[in-house]
Amino acid sequence: MIIKGDIIFTKNKEKFEIYENGFLLIQNGKVKAVQKEYTGIEKVIDREGMLIIPSFVDLHLHANQYANCGLGYDEELLTWLEKYTYPEEVKFKDLAYAEEIFKEVLNKLWEAGSLRSVIFASLYKDASELMFKLVAEAGLSAYVGKVNMDRNVPDFYIETTEDSINFSEDLIKEFSNNDLVKPIITPRFVPHCTIESMQGQADLAKKYNVPVQSHMNESLAENAWVKQLHPQYKTSTDVFEQYGLFGSNSKTIMAHCIHNTKDELELMKKRNFYPVHCPESNANLTSGIMDVKGMLAAGLHVCLGSDISGGHNIYMPNQIILAIQLSKMKARMEDDLSKVLTLAEVFYMATKSGGSFFVNTGSFEEDYSGDFLVIDTTSIMAPREVRSPIERLEKYLYIGSQNNITERYLQGKKIDKPFKE
Amino acid sequence: MIIKGDIIFTKNKEKFEIYENGFLLIQNGKVKAVQKEYTGIEKVIDREGMLIIPSFVDLHLHANQYANCGLGYDEELLTWLEKYTYPEEVKFKDLAYAEEIFKEVLNKLWEAGSLRSVIFASLYKDASELMFKLVAEAGLSAYVGKVNMDRNVPDFYIETTEDSINFSEDLIKEFSNNDLVKPIITPRFVPHCTIESMQGQADLAKKYNVPVQSHMNESLAENAWVKQLHPQYKTSTDVFEQYGLFGSNSKTIMAHCIHNTKDELELMKKRNFYPVHCPESNANLTSGIMDVKGMLAAGLHVCLGSDISGGHNIYMPNQIILAIQLSKMKARMEDDLSKVLTLAEVFYMATKSGGSFFVNTGSFEEDYSGDFLVIDTTSIMAPREVRSPIERLEKYLYIGSQNNITERYLQGKKIDKPFKE
After folding, report:
1. A289 to B384: CB separation less than 8 angstroms, yes or no
2. Which residues have C-beta within 8 Å of that of residue A145, sequence separation ≥ 6?
3. Residues A351, A54: contact at Cβ < 8 Å?
4. Where are chain A's structural domains?
5. Is there a contact between B259 and B288 (Cβ–Cβ < 8 Å)?
6. Chain A residue numbers touching B92 (CB-CB < 8 A)
7. Which residue on chain B is closest to A84 by alpha carbon?
């Protein structure tokens, strides 16, 4: 398969690679090459004048919070969980409801061009199992986590430690052999998991070599709570480390990572660790601004997440732009303009950096997965406006929408809208 | 005219007024009443299940920068002006180009539900005159300013002091008798206007009782420049005050007002002064975060502006949400949660506070202008989602779009899309 257009991607965070009127060659679902010229005999899919970019990778979202997008942002994290989140998540006992919402979420991820994602599915085994199946049916790619929480949650929304571990293990066994849909161990966050649960989850991660996702250092109140629950430790990192969940054996995703100590950053560097920046959620819940620039400079795989429904937009370009804007506000308030993120850096986070969690994804280098979007910017151009490919990309990210994405390919295969409305 | 629906507006910044299944009565283009019941005999326009809210008021935008929306945000204000803005604005010598862009801007304002606005049109008299006529033709309402700049701009984009004053006066005379479209004196900002120009513009404001708009205290570099140009004064406020442009006779709009001194805030309070918060522009250009909460508490008419193309979205709900988010980030970084803006406060800024510049606009109190939007939130609801009117408004502002606005009324008259594409 050979497709022609204005091809843009990031090999590293420093700059965009741009092939105006270039050719992307895909073989067996993987990138074979990107070229300025093509003289071969195969038929070329001609998308001249359109942008071709890697599809987005959303490294953190809660599928069972979707109906709350745009609601309740006068609260901070802990009260927001009590007032809005648990009462919605508990509805997923009803499998028919779960199916309706999950199909909508997968349609929205498809629309948004986020063809790969890492999902908090549900506390419930049945609903989580359904999400695995629906992702596969949609033809998308995701890590799906059954959420584990066995303490400090309302009576109407809790499970036993035994169920946490057994159900997680059942799902790992059931879905370990799928190339596109994989399990991920999902302790909600330190305050919601007993020591026994954390240890049990760590054992599963080690036994099956499955990655781990959780939340950490999102809010000051959360950090104070962790210290109160575990007075012998200083941070969530210490607790996760103690109980084996901090990426010593497999990859670890931690959403937020805003209020970190120096020691935590040191340990993150040593491990195969993915901090996920969720700018919209952090702004909505008054959590704070992550030092993304500093963490990137330290060599961490900082990625982007929509974190619905802490964030309200599942559409990744909104997260890209807000990440840049928040970095500028942090830079201004700290009087340190070196903290400003560039468009290339955040695009890299949303594609290759997040994609590296899936291995060789999110770039157009040789052997990378043939995951890409075709984007038509005609509708967002002003009268007589003519722009270079990189300017069209900038405009698309700032003022475009899902509607500008005309085609979506995963592993070289065109993906259609997954579910009828 | 009587219209039924879920009516929401703000009389003051403290809270929303909500009439579920209420009736909005409009007479002679003005609000007569909002009622829970209606027992009269006139035909009711039934919009049950839809929201009815005041239309938005955009108090600051540059129509001749529209084609740059979404471009060049790796720069700060002064270099951005040089690299991107002047080269675009100079194109408005070409009246045919001006017409194409201005029609598109007015279509976009209409789509966005911003039926009233305050516009920087163009340096050029002809293009500015055209904007007055096009606003009238569109059936929208605006203050239109011919931009004045006679120093410290590139040779290819400057005018004489005499032209500044004469052309401004010509346009004031030509358009002073229109109810919906009015002139506004528009010095670009202190560094771009000579003392003679500022004095001449102040004389016009006094002579014709016309309001003034400009920019002020947007960036630290700008403030340093003002001090360097006028070493005898400390701030832009001092300079504007000295030369008669600081609201002593008529209303004054100043965009941005981020980096203010205590003395400036005191003087703002004394005068009929409208500081305009432009959150997206301030974030894009690394300008800083206005202390909106403090300025509202001080009793200032703080309003909202899209400031395209410093901002990239002409759509006011994006500004509403970002204003809240930035206030949260400021509150978090200054460890003062009392600085967090509520949804009611920012909605008030985008409707009644900005509307007060137009007199009795932006609310549904008696004798207010019959300006409103009808909003259908069906498309943004999740499966089975049922919400109260205020929750639907919150969701609309966070995750809705122009497409959810189904009807737009100005002075009780339905406005159709102004210009064919």
Report:
1. no
2. A118, A119, A120, A121, A128, A183, A184, A185, A186, A213
3. yes
4. 2-54+363-414, 56-355
5. yes
6. none
7. B391
Sign of CA dihedral B149, B155, B161, B166: negative
pTM above 0.95, yes or no: yes
Task: List all residues of chain A from 52 to 91 with a beta carbon under 8 Å from chain B.
Answer: 66-67, 69-71, 73-74
* Alpha-carbon dihedral sign for residues B190, B193, B199, B200: negative
Name residues 273-332 of chain A within 8 A of B (Cβ).
280, 283-284, 286-289, 312-313, 322, 324-326, 328-332
Window 107-126 of B, Cβ < 8 Å to A: none
Give the tens place of pLDDT for each residue, B244-301. Answer: 999 767 899 999 999 999 999 999 999 889 999 999 999 999 999 999 999 999 999 9
Q: Please say whether the beta carbons of A212 and A187 come within 8 A.
A: yes
Please answer yes or no on whether B329 and A289 come within 8 Å at the CB atom: yes
B103: closest chain A residue by CA = A383
Query: Smallest Cα–Cα separation from B351: which of B337, B336, B367, B371?
Result: B371
pLDDT class of A250 with cuts at 50, 70, 90: confident
Fold for domain B2-54+363-414? Urease, subunit C; domain 1 (2.30.40)
What is the homologous superfamily of the domain B56-355 according to CATH? Metal-dependent hydrolases (3.20.20.140)
Do the Cβ atoms of A326 and B329 come within 8 Å?
A: yes
Could you tell me the CA-to-CA distances from B148 to A121, B254, B379, B400 in Å, in that order?
A: 57, 15, 44, 37
Give residues 359 to 418 of A whose Cβ lies within 8 Å of B. Answer: 380, 382-385, 387, 391, 394-399, 401
Residue B6: CA atoms inside 13 Å, Cβ hemisphere, count? 15
The answer to whether B197 and B161 are in contact (CB under 8 A) is yes
**What is the spatial distance between Cα A306 and Cα A303, in angstroms, rounded to a whole number?**
10
Euclidean distance between CA atoms B303 and B252, whole angstroms: 12
With tokens 């009238």, the residue in question is: B136
**How many angstroms separate the CA of residue B165 from the nearest CA in chain A?**
31
Mutate: best of B15, B378, B398, B420, partner A, most A CBs <10 A: B398
Beta carbons of B71 and A395 less than 8 Å apart: yes
* Per-residue confidence (pLDDT) for residue B309, from 0 to 100: 96
DSSP letter, residue A150: -
CB B187 within 8 A of CB B212: yes
**Contact residues, chain B, for A398 at CB < 8 Å:** 69-71, 73, 312
Three-state SS for A292? helix
pLDDT in tens, A307-351: 999 999 999 999 999 999 999 999 999 999 999 999 999 999 999
Contact A185, A201 (CB under 8 A): yes
* Closest by Cβ to A398, choosing from B312, B342, B385: B312
Please return the burial class of A46, using the count of CB atoms within 10 Å of its CB with bins 0-12, 13-18 and 19+: exposed
Instruction: Check CB contact under 8 Å for A332 and B391.
Output: no
Q: Counting every residue, how long is chain B?
A: 421
CA distances in angstroms from A290 to A214, A321, A383, B74, listed in the order given: 17, 15, 39, 20
> What pairs with residue A58 in β-bridges?
A117
Two structure tokens written together for A205:
């991660």
Structure letter (DSSP) for residue B353: I
Output helix, strand, coil percentages for chain B, rounded to the nearest 5: 45, 25, 35
Nearest to B384 among A73, A97, A383 (CB): A97
Q: Do A288 and B326 touch (CB under 8 A)?
A: no
Phi first, then psi: what are they for A140, rounded to 5°?
-95, 180
* Residues in chain A within 8 Å Cβ distance of B322: 325
Contact B395 A100 (CB under 8 A): no
